Amino acid sequence: MAERATRFQGNSHKRFTARLAGVPTIDCTLVDREVTARGLSARAPWWRRLVAGGTDGNEELTAATAVVLLLMLAALGVTIVRIGQLLDFHMFLGMLLLGPVALKMSSTGYRFVRYYTHNPRYVAKGPPEIALRLIAPLVIASTVAVFATGVVLLVGGPGVRHPFSLLHKVSFIVWVSFMVLHVLGHLPGLPASLRASTRRERDPTWDDYGAGRGSRALTLAGSIVLGTALAIAVIPQFGIWHGSH
Asked: Would you state the pLDDT for residue 214?
């Protein structure tokens, strides 16, 4: 308390002296806050910098991952149309997708948990539209089903074709149906979400730990690298499917 009183008196004296001198008044309290924020940023632990950016950072990461997924899923669709000729590429791309899919589910799941545990910033941001919230469990369940059955088929080979091949096809149809609704629901706001961090909200994570743009870029790149590594690791399994499709 004594330190606070001393600071208040010092700031008041500075403002009074500035008025007498006829110069613009500077709010020294704001200056102190800026210096403190810079100090906190310099001392911020690495894991706080990694998740910096607040609600806008989470939104931006989710949107950027969604764009990557849309491009990859479009390529995957081409392999499905010509599955006989592009089976190897279909399996490779399916494994590669595991990284970005896991990241997308993690970023949306993080927002879900923070909102329903009543974090003030996420509560203030609000939930997605009610229709999107209703189909979200089906999107997640079908996503897990289509990729899980695909991995089982890849690793197990033609010997596990029944019933996993049927489950893979059925889960894919369900997944595509709800994914189309999911994409259409989020598409209008996608451009704004990709620029979410430019809003510069007065969020404590901005002031103390920065915008987190670099960590988000590394996280997204890391998910692609991880997926690629998984795909390369299972290339030897592709051969067991040659001539059996």
From this structure: 83
